[in-house]
Amino acid sequence: MKSTMQDTPLSIGQLVRFGTSIHSSAEVITWSESGPTTVTFGELGKRAAQLAHALRSIGIDGDQRVATFMWNNSAHMEAYMAVPAMGAVLHTLNIRLFPEQLTYIAEHAEDRVIIADASLLPLLTPLLPTMTTVRHLIIVGADPSDVQAPEGLEVLGYEELLAGQPEEFDWPELDEHDAAAMCYTSGTTGDPKGVVYSHRSIWLHSMQACMTDAMAVAQSDKVLAIVPMFHAMSWGLPYAALMVGASLIMPDKFLQPAPLSEMISTLRPTAAAAVPTIWQALYAHLGEHPIDLSSLRDVVVGGSACPPSLMRAFHEEYGVHITQAWGMTETSPLGTSGRPDAGLSPEDEFDLRCTQGRFVAGVRARLVDDAGKELPWDGTQVGELEVRGPWITGSYYRNDAPDKFDDGWLRTGDVGTIAPGGYLRLTDRSKDIIKSGGEWISSVELENHVMAHPAVREAAVIGVPDPKWDERPLVAVVVRDGVTVSAEELKEFLDGRVAHWQLPERWTFIEEVPKTSVGKYDKKRLRSTHADGRLDVIELA
Amino acid sequence: MKSTMQDTPLSIGQLVRFGTSIHSSAEVITWSESGPTTVTFGELGKRAAQLAHALRSIGIDGDQRVATFMWNNSAHMEAYMAVPAMGAVLHTLNIRLFPEQLTYIAEHAEDRVIIADASLLPLLTPLLPTMTTVRHLIIVGADPSDVQAPEGLEVLGYEELLAGQPEEFDWPELDEHDAAAMCYTSGTTGDPKGVVYSHRSIWLHSMQACMTDAMAVAQSDKVLAIVPMFHAMSWGLPYAALMVGASLIMPDKFLQPAPLSEMISTLRPTAAAAVPTIWQALYAHLGEHPIDLSSLRDVVVGGSACPPSLMRAFHEEYGVHITQAWGMTETSPLGTSGRPDAGLSPEDEFDLRCTQGRFVAGVRARLVDDAGKELPWDGTQVGELEVRGPWITGSYYRNDAPDKFDDGWLRTGDVGTIAPGGYLRLTDRSKDIIKSGGEWISSVELENHVMAHPAVREAAVIGVPDPKWDERPLVAVVVRDGVTVSAEELKEFLDGRVAHWQLPERWTFIEEVPKTSVGKYDKKRLRSTHADGRLDVIELA
């Protein structure tokens, strides 16, 4: 028996139509050298219509890929609106990928147009000759005639292209399963793999982001979207903002602690979202340059586990609540949200806040052991997390990768436990876990304990070969400016905090932990630096 | 180009699986003569599985209709969970319909099973011989052998049927467009019409209900669901609660002000939802029996417009915020939510709170005049509201009703304006508006102004024939206990509040405004009482 409900598709076109009319006074505020510039959703709607007409005029009339090579700013928001709403596919190029990866993904996605920020041209122009499917480069913020382009590639100015185009566009009704946007994983192993979001998945994910127990994005919010729009769609914040009329603060290229701190103190965001490394750097900066953080009702941290010491410090020193969320490019990204049950003691609540949070209703989860057997949710048994749901990828674009899927479930590569109540506690990436004498040691747990030491700014733990135990942990430590600490002191600090057999013997002091393109610890690089004998390792008894 | 997202359907089965595992400690608290009884979501999950097995055992193996004839209570919640999740269709019979309407809808929907509360048997048993498709009657809370049933109808006890059934059920993966539940409109004109919700529409609507700017249902909530589960699915609250693990307080048959007041003071709900008449009655009761209402973060009022005087009184006297929402059985029901933009003056904010609120992203709206022309959203021009979206009905079950649809849009029968920002201000039902000398007078606006007088408890305005103006308003007034007021005084009170030509000449004082089965003013009955000459009408100059 069929329902009598209307069969209207979920579409970015409706999201754009809605956000720019009902919430026309909401704003996108972009930071710049000369301070913030503001544009309303109403104005954005007109400019998105102009962009769509302009793209039609240069031949985008189907599902061609329109790429962006941009910071978080209002022009990028216009591309987020216009490209999927007109029926084309938005491909957000990750500016932090290595050159050969960028070439690979532009070729693999067959990008036809790239819209690029002028400030990023030095990274992009050397690659243009290798991106053979690109016909048009549209420059935001610079004179297109200054750009040297290879033959067959036309360079256009963004504002010149929009000028004079009609300010309305009749956004078509599309199949909600059609592609709306795509994003490639940064690919620490093998080639980057493309995830293609649908109008449906983006719509559902936006609703999830606005649910009170998830990111609670609301009309009264001003969301500081630090997480890049080229990284898992800025965790869905641009579309969530359109769905409820929340204003957005976009930092453009100003991702350093000083300008972020200025944005927070002058623009007074109510919420913010970024990876832990951003908050760590900001915290270090705030120690010398304190500001008022009281406008922040919530800070969402994801991408990798947030050190509990950082969560505690932000809460105790600045009254700011950090909420963890777990997700990945493949999961749109919202998979969990770290809001514990009400009515717990402060310590129990904090303990649960240090988990990756609880699964949301649209995401089914299971833990699987090495043999593929499903494990119970007892908070103890460790397995790989597999997930399933309408905003979770079921394949990669033109890339089979059968080892990433298990009977329709996504294998996340994340390893951990699930406690009763659905609290996910990730202990490691499956490739980072340390296998010592048949037992597993979580690199992340060791890092968190080391980082709880007041002299430590950053710590990364990798497994290194050991003749007796197969693998043992090596701790790479970044010490805070102006203080000193020895490996002996740190080992002693860990004693009693971790099981005795887990206490690391090997320590190294480094200037900085290498990071991936998306700001996570790059343990692959750390491992190869160690393998090359380029780390000074102290070995304790 | 297709997306790479998983094609997993939205389904009540997943909602049940999720809510009863991740949020197994959330509760449904049902009121009874001997106080509240509590059952956890975890226990409900087991009982819902038992119910599904029991229904299979009596032949429910496809999309047969399983009807309920029940108050809001935990057994009704079990039916909400089990029936759609197993693939059958839940038909919530509205206990307040007239007998011939109940017969009509049970026959029309071809109900196979009815689950009924013992306390409602006196209403139901006389009708059983007329419900020819029903094979099983399942009684909650009484001995089935006490029930006299017509031949061919087997009477079963709910608990006896569940006892011994397995406590797990492998909820099937269904097509999300399949029917999950159905609800008939109360049908003030013609036969009741059936709206059939899909798994998809219920899922999307539940997400909407949990969005911060809508009903903000969250894990930390205890929602007092006064609005009946047989009336537009209790506004979606049962499924929204499952989606986030909010606890529910169910009043069963205790809908009078005294027990509701006791539920609020002893169980301390954080949110509540009901039609305005419930709040009016509660307000009158509270005057003599004040209680602490401070646990209520939000009270959602819908079904008909809430008198501004009542909103102001609750806010000023009890600190309780009333939020209006507009919807109907045909819209699942959430169409708008009354949360104004931030940063307004208190008076401007209150003024916008008195509208029906703003449309939510999933609902497209337009105003259409008598000639079918679309009107601008200028807050002035009055037309009929038409809506479109994935949780809005596009037809009625086995009933064409072409006059209810306009090129794929639902004609709501509601008349009003839409202001910039999408604020809907309903002035009337299209059939209740008073056409006086070519101009329209809103019966609802007049009612609100009359009800702002301190001596008035209720006021209903209908159009009555007038030889000169075609129609003129007649005001039916219910005066508060222990006070008196004259028609002259009330007319004088209106002077200056409404345009002079709108001032009503005709007044009548009555004991109570007749109500429809769902608690709305029954103006059809008031009109016929007047037409029969059974109202004492005072006619002023």
Would you spell out the secondary-structure blueprint of this structure?
2 copies of one chain form a homodimer.
Chain A: H1 12-21, E1 27-30, E2 37-40, H2 41-57, E3 65-69, H3 74-85, E4 89-92, H4 99-109, E5 111-117, H5 121-124, E6 136-140, E7 154-157, H6 158-162, E8 179-184, E9 194-198, H7 199-210, E10 222-225, H8 237-244, E11 247-250, H9 257-267, E12 271-274, H10 276-288, E13 298-301, H11 308-318, E14 322-324, E15 336-337, H12 346-353, E16 357-359, E17 364-368, E18 374-375, E19 383-388, E20 405-406, E21 409-419, E22 423-429, E23 434-436, E24 439-441, H13 443-451, E25 456-466, E26 470-479, H14 487-494, E27 506-509, H15 523-531, E28 538-539
Parallel strand pairs in A: 1-11, 3-4, 3-5, 4-8, 5-6, 6-7, 10-11, 10-12, 12-13, 13-14, 26-27
Antiparallel strand pairs in A: 1-2, 8-9, 15-16, 16-22, 17-18, 17-19, 19-21, 20-21, 21-22, 23-24, 25-26, 27-28
Structure commentary:
- Two copies of one chain form a homodimer.
- The termini of chain A are far apart.
- Helix content of chain A is 27%, strand content 25%.
- Among the domains of chain A are: 12-207, Rossmann fold, CATH 3.40.50; 355-429, Luciferase, domain 3 (Roll), CATH 2.30.38.10; 434-539, 2-Layer Sandwich (GMP Synthetase, Chain A, domain 3).
- The mean pLDDT of chain A is 94.
- The longest helix of chain A has 17 residues, at 41-57.
- Chain A is of the alpha/beta class and 541 residues long.
- At the A-B interface, helix 1, strand 9, helix 7 and helix 8 of A face helix 1, strand 9, helix 7 and helix 9 of B.
